[in-house]
Structures are given as C-alpha cells and as structure tokens.
Design brief:
It is a single chain. By secondary structure, this protein is α/β, with parallel strands linked by helices. Helix content is 43%, strand content 15%. It contains 7 helices and 6 strands. A 6-stranded parallel β-sheet has the order 3-4-2-1-5-6, with helices on both faces. The longest helix has 24 residues. The two termini are 12 Å apart. The relative contact order is 0.20. The structure holds farnesyl diphosphate. Farnesyl diphosphate (FPP) binds next to helix 1, helix 2, strand 2 and helix 3.
Length: 241
Amino acid sequence: MADSQNNNKYYPKNIGIIMDGNGRWAIRNSLKISEGHKKGVGVVRDIVEEAVKRGIQSLTLYAFSSENWQRPKREINAIKRLVIEAINEQVPELKEKKVKLKFFGHLDDFGEKIQNKIFFAENETCFEEAKLNLNVALGYGGQQDIVDIVYKVSEEVSSGSVNLKDITKETINSYSSVPVDEIDLLIRTGGDKRISNFLLYQIAYAEIMFIEKFWPDFTNKDFVNCLDNFKNVSRRFGKRI
Ligand code: FPP
C-alpha cells in the first residue's frame, strides 16, 4: 500500500491501544498476574510521554473491558488498586504535561472510591487546550456502548426531542460514551489478531497494527515504529486516489 504519492505523511491523530499480554508476561517471568498489570502501567506512563513528545492528539486505552468482570476477584481487585495508584502517582506529572484525562465505560460498577478518584483526576487535568487527550476505557464494551446509544436515542425520539430523520453518524458519536469520534490507528499487543469489543463504531477506517510482543515488553521504540509505519500507509477512505 505504501507508495510515495499516496502515503499520508502524517502521524495518526487519534490512537487506540489494546494493551494485551500482561498475564502471559507475568507467567513467563514466574510472577503474579498482578505484577504483569503493574509493569503494564509503567509502560502506559512511557507511551504517554512519547505521545506528548510526538504531538499525538489522543490516546485511548483499553484498561478493563465489560467482559473482564469474569476474571478472578483477586485480579479485578489488583487492577482496581492499580488504577487508584496510577491516578495518585501520575496526576501531578500529567498536569505538568497538560495531559487531559478522561475515563469512560460503565464506571458506576467500580464503586464510589474509584469514581471519586476519577472525578478528581478529570477535574485536575481539565485543560481547555490539552497537549494530549488520554482516554481510559473502564468497564467498557463496544457492543454495550452501541446498545446504550440506541436506548438513549430512542428515548429522545419518543419524547420528540430528536427527529428520526435527523439521525446521522454524528448523532451516534454524540451519544457514545467514547470521547473520540474516529480512531486513525489501533495497536494491539500480545499477538492475537482480534478487536475484542473495543471501539467498534470508531475504528471504521482505522489502520490496525498487531504486535507480537506482550504489553509489558512494548517500548517507546516499538510505538514510534507504529507511528512511522502509519505514515507510509495510503488512506483512501473508499475513494479512488
Ligand atoms: C490485558 O492483559 C490487560 C488488561 C486486561 C488490563 C490492563 C490494565 C492495566 C495496564 C492497568 C490499568 C491501566 C491504567 C491506564 C491505569 P491480559 O491480562 O489479558 O494478558 P493475557 O492475555 O496475557 O492474559
């Protein structure tokens, strides 16, 4: 696809990441699963720093899917603790770098303590002109998001505040819990080639890069490689160019 006339030359504006492989990384290194997630948070910190440096507009991370509630309670609690720790430790740095944090998904299911932390983190980083928008999916599933949108729009149509014929692609985006409308590049680590219910509506024209490495082994260099590869892709959006 890469050719010198058609490549898009620019870094992606909006990036999504499925940070897979924490568990397998932990097992491979004879560590507890929670240690894999902990190492994963460290990688998030590094990639955020790189994204700010490279002028990326948004990073949307899959931290906890609606299906992850089926994991052992101990692992779920470890992830919850890590989210709280990450907010406590990283908000000052994110503030300094003008990174705007936004959490989305069924946050109500996480209890008051996490919701209060999220409220604090979003308030502290609520920049009008952020250097980077960092969106974190928690208790999120793409299909459920579409169900929620249908439900909300149907209510608006029944009450008369939205006309059925006025529903557009933009209407769907505006009712979605996802803070970004279109993903340009989706990266999945961990070797599996699937979407796992992430950002189903927003990845319509995303370039998708599947990386073999587990997330804890993913480096800034790997990330920059993805950005450079994206530059060489011809994006036609269905048109003949
Ligand atoms: C996938 O690896 C990873 C997760 C389900 C959790 C990711 C969560 C974090 C990195 C912590 C929270 C993040 C933030 C931004 C505060 P897996 O356990 O499914 O790996 P496996 O496929 O090898 O089992």
